[in-house]
Amino acid sequence: MKKNNLMKLKNSLIIVLCLLLTACGGKNKKEKIDMNSLLKEGQEANLEISPESLNAIIESIPSPLEIAMVIKQSGFEFNEKMLNKQDNAKFYTTDQDKALNIGVYSGDLGYINIYEKAYMTVNYLTSIKSLADDIHVGQFFDFSTIKRMASNSDKMDSLIFLTTNNFNKMDGFLRSQKRSNLSILMVTGTWTEGLYIATQVAKENKNKEITDWVGYQKIIVDQLILGLSAYKNDDYFQKIVADLKGLKSVYDGITITYDYHEPESVEVDGRLVIVDKSTSTVNISEAQLNQIGDLVTKMRSRLVKNS
Amino acid sequence: MQVVRNIKALLLSAFILGSVNVYGQCDSDMLLDQCAHSLGTYNYIKSFSMKASSHRKSNHEYSYVFSKGSNYLIIVCDQNLKGGKMIVNLYDREHNLIGSTFDEKENKYYPELRYSCETTGVYYIKASFEGSKGGCGMCILGFNKE
After folding, report:
1. Do B68 and A216 touch (CB under 8 A)?
2. pTM of the full structure
């Protein structure tokens, strides 16, 4: 009897050991997501989007620094009036409003930092941190370091790095805590603010690069609609999806064409440099640009509660 | 008494094997601190962490929308251990290979990949470790418009 019990215990331990070996290896697999296929499948009604697909969508949304750089390099002056007023933060009472407007203010911060308006950085970060604290993601801000960098104009690169890293950490933390609903709202806020700023600049100044950039956001609109649809039973998300579908109706008339050529690789000073020989072309009219500007202005006003 | 010793040995083996599979210290903050200086004049966008155990083939792939007219920098940041070097491949929206930080012909590893983009679209950054071995690393993505 004693011998039987010991045999059973030995066998149980062997099973536990085998489970440990297989469990630890399995966690490293990451599903390969093809965005084109995902968007095609997304057109099916009632498609359930997986957490991995949602992560892929959130990760692929471009940084607001990129459009800010396009605007600055096109020679346009900094315009503080376009930015979301810090006072509006008092209107953000729900977690969803807070998350979305962390994104909006982060979009503004990208614009502020690219234009090296360091005197505004701390104020906008204060608004972001306050909202972030409310949704329990404020722990990533090192204000003493940020203030020190903001007071030194030579430290703009480091300031951009630090503030971008803060945003990424908030986003990563939310997703690790299974709060991707707030994460996708944050990136929606950032993207909306970037599109709003770009269309405001384009309204006053005809500029092909900015206009084309607006046209290329067709790619992002489809991704955001799909990602936000993961929460289609939530009224807050439904309203944003409705706004984005309004934008999509204009973007459906905008075409992007691709001409593929093999890229060229060279080694320069021990570094691999690849030159893209393909091109993409976007066909967007002034009327479409204006329509997008009007729609995103309306959407953004509702989201930032700018009455 | 022999049985008790056997059980203890089994438990100890299970513990050691479980710990080894985590691949030691794979600290993304430490890797970012270690390699971020390589950004130079590029603005930091984001970083993607990769970790794989030795007995499983790694398949980390991330997507990001690159914009026409921008230059992108992908820094390969790994623990630089022999047999565990990270390889990063960049693919376009149709999953055509644009470039790799490992040159098979020359058996050479590049520490970074610079890409001048003329085609706006979704791009895929895929990382693996040499010889399908385990490893710990990070891709750091930056951009500029010079």
Report:
1. yes
2. 0.87
